[in-house]
Structure formats: structure tokens, C-alpha cells
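About this split. The held-out portion is used to measure sequence recovery: a designer receives only the C-alpha cells and must propose an amino acid at every position. Recovery is the fraction of positions where the proposal matches the reference. Here is one held-out target exactly as it appears in the evaluation file.
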């Protein structure tokens, strides 16, 4: 009876002991070419802890430190990866836990349609927004053109502003009356950072848009 009572007490103690658990729920996105650092957190367990990639991978340029659980480096390109990260402690036998994350690396420059190209009469119009996800001011050029079926290009919009770091440029409208034809609309953004000898590009394409012959 005493033996069974002791086993029951030991089992109850084991069940009450906090289990090793990864408490980090999401990974913050990193920006291409920018230093990135974040540390995964876990509760309970016997130190030291050991971290590892169980399945999948981080974006190229980022590494997981097995001793600290920190993810650091500089992302080489924009990407999105699913990665399962595991942790184990130093108890005998070791406790383990794992969690699956989405790991993203964002481009420095992004370009999006605010109002996709549309036709009103013989005028193609719309608008775009440009985001600078990096920390530095960039020298930005935005050009929107419509190209017809024989390759002739017509300018719809142009701006050449400075764009501060981690900001989104206000809506950039575009529009022009065009001769009849079938057009593809292309928006291009080019961000120059002379101090670091860097150039970043983003583009969007839409269409075709058929302008009626008058």
C-alpha cells in the first residue's frame, strides 16, 4: 500500500511539474538587406535549452542560434517560408516542444495598385501606392505607361519624390486619353540609395484594356 501511495504521489508531482513550452507565437518579418534579430522564448524546462530547425527553413541569410534561440542575419531576398522550430531542455530524459511559424522577408520597395487601371471613354486611369520598408530615405521614381499591341508606349503618370524610411507614399494617380487599341498598363518604381550603392525595383502589370476607336 505504501509503495502504491508513493507512486501516486510521484505521478501527481510529475503531472504538476510545468512542461517545456515555446511561448513565441509569431515571427516578425525581416526586410531585405537590413540587420534582423529576434529571440524565441520558452517557459519551464531545465537549462540550458537547445534550439533546432525541425522542418523547413528560414529565408536565405537568416540563421537560428541553437544555444540562444535567436534568429539573426540579413535576408538576401524577399521570401515566405514555413518552418518548424523545436526546443529541448537538459533534463533526463529531455523535455521537448516544437511550433510551426511563417517566416517572411519583405522587399525594401513594394508597389501596389490602389485603383487598378480602368477605362472611362477613351481614358485609362487609376492609382498606385509605393512603400519603403527599409529605414533609409530613398530617391524614388515612379513611371506608369500603357503599351499597345504593336509595342508603342504612352505615359500615364510620373513622379520623382523622396520617400522616407518605413513609410507608404500617398496615392499616386495616373491617367491619359489614348487612341484606340489594346493596352497593357505597367507601373514601375525605382528606389535609389546612393550612400549604400543600392537600387531597388518593384513593378505591377495589368490589362489588357481595350480603348475603343473613335
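Reference sequence for scoring:
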Amino acid at each position: 500500500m505504501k509503495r502504491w501511495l508513493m507512486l501516486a504521489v510521484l505521478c501527481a508531482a510529475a503531472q504538476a511539474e510545468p512542461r517545456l513550452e515555446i511561448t513565441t507565437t509569431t515571427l516578425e518579418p525581416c526586410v531585405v538587406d537590413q540587420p534582423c534579430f529576434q529571440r524565441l522564448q520558452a517557459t519551464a524546462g531545465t537549462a540550458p535549452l537547445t534550439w533546432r530547425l525541425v522542418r523547413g527553413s528560414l529565408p536565405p541569410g537568416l540563421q537560428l542560434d541553437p544555444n540562444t534561440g535567436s534568429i539573426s542575419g540579413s535576408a538576401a531576398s524577399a521570401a515566405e517560408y514555413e518552418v518548424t522550430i523545436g526546443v529541448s531542455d537538459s533534463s533526463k530524459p529531455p523535455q521537448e516542444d516544437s511550433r510551426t511559424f511563417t517566416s517572411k522577408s519583405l522587399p525594401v520597395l513594394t508597389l501596389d495598385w490602389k485603383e487598378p487601371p480602368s477605362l472611362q471613354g477613351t481614358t485609362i486611369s487609376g492609382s498606385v501606392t509605393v512603400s519603403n520598408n527599409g529605414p533609409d530615405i530613398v530617391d524614388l521614381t515612379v513611371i506608369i505607361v500603357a503599351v499597345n499591341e504593336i509595342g508603342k508606349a504612352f505615359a500615364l503618370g510620373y513622379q520623382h519624390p523622396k520617400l522616407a524610411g518605413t513609410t507608404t507614399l500617398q496615392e499616386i494617380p495616373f491617367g491619359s486619353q489614348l487612341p484606340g487599341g489594346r493596352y497593357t498598363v505597367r507601373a514601375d518604381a525605382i528606389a535609389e540609395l546612393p550612400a549604400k550603392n543600392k537600387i531597388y525595383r518593384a513593378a505591377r502589370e495589368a490589362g489588357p484594356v481595350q480603348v475603343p476607336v473613335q
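Annotator remark: The chain has a mean pLDDT of 93.
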